[in-house]
Amino acid sequence: MSRFGTAICAAVAIAAGGYWLTQSQSTQTSAPLIGAAFAQDAGDIDTSTIIEMVQGAEDAPIEMIEYASYTCPHCATFHEGTYKELKKDYIDTGKVKFIFREVYFDRYGLWASMVARCGGPEKFFGVSDLIFKGQSDWARAGGPAEIVDELRKIGRIAGLDNDALEACLQDGTKAQTLIKWYEDNAKADGVESTPSFIINGKSVSNQSYADFKKVLDAELAN
C-alpha cells in the first residue's frame, strides 16, 4: 500500500468515528461503518464494482485519462478552463474518449468523490463541476463537520436527496473499494501527482490547452 493509501485508510477510520455523519444519529452508525470499511483485506477487495466515469464516444480514436483530486487547486483550474475547451473541441466531437479517475490524497477528496458518485454516471460530471467550482469554499469551510456539510449542499444543488447523500457518505465498504481501485490504477499508470494524464497509453503532463491540442492533433494524425 502506498503512503497515500495508508493515509486514506486512516482517514476512513477517522471518518467512521463520527465525521461521515455530523447529525445527531452519527454516533449510532459509526461503529458499523468501521466494521464495513475494514471487513476485507485490501487484497480481497473486488474493485470491478467501481464504475469508470466516461465522456465521449466509446470508439473515439484517442483515449484520455485524467487522474485528479477534488482538493487539488491545479485540478480545479484545469476543469474551469482547459477541460471545457477540450470537451467542446475533442470530447463532444467524438475525437476523445475521456475517462476521469479520482485520486485520494486526503479524506476530504474521498468524501467529495463519494458525493460525486452518489447520483451515478448520469450526474457525475455535473456534480464534479460543482465540486471543483466551489473548491475554495467547501475545502476551507472549517473542520471535517463543516466540510462534509458543504459537500452535502453541493449534492443537494445537483438534485440528490438527503437520504441518498447520507447513504453514500456512510458506505464504508464503497470507500474502502474506491481506495483500492485508486491505488491499483495509480500504481499501474505511475501516478504520483495531480492532475496527471494518460493519452493513448502515454503519460502527459498538465499543460495549456494549446499544448494539449498539439498532442491530441498529433495523435489524430497518426
Which runs of at least 5 residues are low in confidence (pLDDT < 50)? 1-39
The Rg value, from CA coordinates, equals 18 Å
Which class of secondary structure composition applies to the elements? alpha+beta
- Percent of residues in helices: 55-70%
CATH topology: Glutaredoxin
Mean pLDDT: 85
Which CATH first-tier class would you pick? Alpha Beta
CATH superfamily membership? Glutaredoxin
The CATH architecture comes to 3-Layer(aba) Sandwich
Please tell me the total number of domains: 1
For the secondary structure, the number of strands is: 5
The arrangement of helices and strands along the chain is HHEEHHEHHHHHHEEH
| Strand fraction | 5-15%
Largest sheet properties: 5 strands, mixed
The number of helical runs is 11
How far apart are the termini?
A: 38 Å
Q: Strand order across the biggest sheet?
A: 1-3-2-4-5
| Cα shape | globular
InterPro entries: Thioredoxin-like_fold, Thioredoxin-like_sf, Thioredoxin_domain
Pfam families: Thioredoxin_4
Domain Thioredoxin: 25-221
Protein name: DsbA family protein
In short:
The chain is of the alpha+beta class and 222 residues long.
Written account of the structure:
- The chain is of the alpha+beta class and 222 residues long.
- It has one domain: 3-Layer(aba) Sandwich (Glutaredoxin), CATH 3.40.30.10.
- The chain has eleven helices and five strands; from the N terminus they run ααββααβααααααββα.
- It has a five-stranded mixed β-sheet, with helices on both faces.
- Strand 4 and strand 5 form a beta hairpin.
- Helix 1 runs antiparallel to helix 2, helix 1 runs antiparallel to helix 10 and helix 2 crosses helix 10.
- The longest helix has 18 residues.
- The termini are far apart.
- The N terminus is likely disordered.
